[in-house]
Write a structure and sequence with these properties.
single chain, mainly alpha, DNA polymerase, domain 1, hpI Integrase, Chain A, 3-stranded antiparallel β-sheet, 13 helices, elongated
């Protein structure tokens, strides 16, 4: 028989009794008591025959404690190595505050059973969250519990008992195909001409030519303009504006790259740079010396669409901040600038070769231009 942590006290009549403290599923402390240790041992055995009471040598570890341990010891370490972005940790925090903590209420992990976890998944389904979001929330919860188990703080990891996500399905969103005859390059240029703010207009011009991410172009500095140092019509991309307008690494390791621009765009960038204060190194900042926010760019693009002819106001790409990136990448694939997914993925700084192939290369595999890719871009 297991030697439980039993202590002795006296009851109201002054008689010595054996007492055992434990945590109930709601996290509150409860007690069992008996006239003797042997009787109490038997009472404990009889009371906790079902899973929910775990015979363990682990010390009490609440969900909040496990979560703090996971964040401080694991996630922060990964972030220091550049393996996890601050924005990702912020998302994890939101998962915990909005979904995990309200359901489990800081429960002792030793008392967590399969039914608890099954009920948690059902609770998420009742919120009508999509399968992808449920999977992300559950995986964060599982990682919290698993980390404590892997580090020897927990003897039993209930999250690995069964596949709790058997009935959770994720579907790939179908991206609307862009008709490049209808949405030709000149139409996209006209959209940009409709933008009133000169800084945002230039950002969008660069986005359209390079297929870069908005966060990467917002982070550009004078030193990234390679054409200012040599005759090459190129821009260096090696950083990005992250959440809270902090500069960090590009989204992927492949994000560090050099992209080509047209001679006409070079002239526009040069004119813009010459209009900046001599000591201003950052290209795209607001009056408070902060990086221009992506929401301002989105608002400007939306206003620009409203100025287009009615037939050009319903753009196939709903995510307006990435409209130029997806348009230009599609354009490169259709016009034959890149014949395979690997080369295209490297150019746009995407690590998911399968995604690039499925989304851009495959749809034009039999219809892309066989001619050598050539273009002359002129900006008004």
């Amino acid at each position: 028989m297991i030697d439980y942590n039993i202590h002795y006290t006296t009851n109201k009549k002054g008689k010595k009794i054996a007492r055992f403290a434990y945590k109930k599923p709601d996290g509150k402390t409860a007690y069992l008591q008996a006239p003797s240790k042997a009787a109490l041992n038997q009472k404990i055995e009889n009371t906790f025959k079902e899973r929910g009471f775990i015979k363990t040598h682990s010390q009490e570890i609440t969900l909040n404690e496990a979560r703090d341990f996971f964040v401080k010891s694991h996630l922060n370490y990964k972030m220091s190595l550049g393996k996890t972005a601050l924005s990702t940790i912020d998302d994890y925090g939101s998962f915990y505050r909005c979904h995990i903590d309200p359901f489990f209420k800081n429960k002792d992990l030793r008392l967590m059973n399969k039914k608890d976890v099954i009920d948690f998944v059902e609770h998420l389904k009742e919120k009508q969250l999509d399968g992808k979001t449920i999977t992300k929330i559950f995986n964060h919860f599982k990682n919290i519990v698993s980390y404590s188990a892997d580090k020897g703080r927990l003897d039993y990891n209930v999250t690995k008992d069964i596949n709790y996500l058997t009935d959770i399905f994720t579907t790939n969103k179908k991206r609307k195909k862009i008709d490049l005859d209808f949405w030709n390059f000149e139409v996209m240029q006209q959209l940009i001409y409709n933008i009133d703010n000169p800084m945002i207009k230039l950002i969008c011009m660069i986005l359209l030519e390079t297929a870069a991410r908005p966060s990467e172009i917002r982070a550009l500095e004078r030193s990234d303009l390679l054409f200012m140092k040599s005759n090459s019509l190129q821009i260096n991309i090696d950083k990005a504006v992250k959440r809270h307008k902090k500069v960090g690494e590009t989204k992927t390791e492949q994000g560090e790259r050099i992209v080509d621009i047209s001679s006409s765009l070079k002239d526009h960038i040069t004119d813009y740079v010459n209009s900046l204060p001599v000591l201003q190194n950052k290209l795209f900042i607001n009056t408070k010396a902060k990086y221009i926010c992506v929401e301002r760019i989105i608002r400007a693009i939306n206003k620009a669409f409203k100025k287009m002819q009615p037939e050009y106001q319903d753009f196939p790409i709903q995510r307006k901040s990435y409209a130029f990136r997806h348009y230009r990448t599609t354009y490169f694939a259709a016009k034959g600038k890149f014949k395979n997914a690997l080369d295209l993925a490297h150019y746009i700084g995407d690590k998911d070769i399968n995604f690039v192939n499925r989304t851009y290369i495959a749809p034009f595999k039999n219809g892309s231009s066989s001619k050598e890719f050539k273009e002359t871009i002129t900006w008004n």
